């Protein structure tokens, strides 16, 4: 899969070419943690890595913003790396404890 610079930045194996711009790395931006980015999507489908749901979600949260057509045309290894990073990005900060407090066990 694409090599990672940090957990939310993916260095693409095959860069995306947009007009005269070559996109070599993509960041999962802060919009990934906003509930609005999930509108109309099923969390079950995102967790299950359903392509169509990931396509919509990634087009909303990538920096630079990638178009759905660019995501569809990208190397499958790069798409998989972005999908994993995006799902881990919004799940990674979740806490199962109220207000992030520790509870006695």
Written description of the protein model:
By secondary structure, the protein is α+β, with helices and mostly antiparallel strands. The protein has one domain (3-92). The chain is 37% helix and 23% strand. It has 4 helices and 4 strands, in the order E-E-E-H-H-E-H-H. The protein has helices at 43-47, 51-61, 68-73, 76-92; strands at residues 3-6, 9-18, 21-28, 62-63. The protein has a 4-stranded antiparallel β-sheet. The longest helix is centred in the last third of the chain and has 17 residues, at 76-92. The protein is globular and about 35 Å long. The mean pLDDT is 85.
State the gist of this model.
This is Phage tail assembly protein. It comes from Escherichia coli. With 105 residues, the chain is of the alpha+beta class.
Keywords:
alpha+beta; globular; 4 helices; four-stranded antiparallel β-sheet; 105 residues
Strand content: 15-25%
Query: Could you tell me the radius of gyration in angstroms?
Result: 15 Å
Outline the low-pLDDT stretches.
Answer: none
- Derived structural class: alpha+beta
Number of domains: 1
Q: Count of helical segments? A: 4
Distance between the termini: 39 Å
Share in helix: 25-40%
SSE string, helices as H and strands as E: EEEHHEHH
| Shape summary | globular
Mean pLDDT: 85
Q: In order across it, which strands form the biggest sheet?
A: 1-2-3-4
Number of strands: 4
Largest sheet: 4 strands, antiparallel
Protein name: Phage tail assembly protein
Organism: Escherichia coli
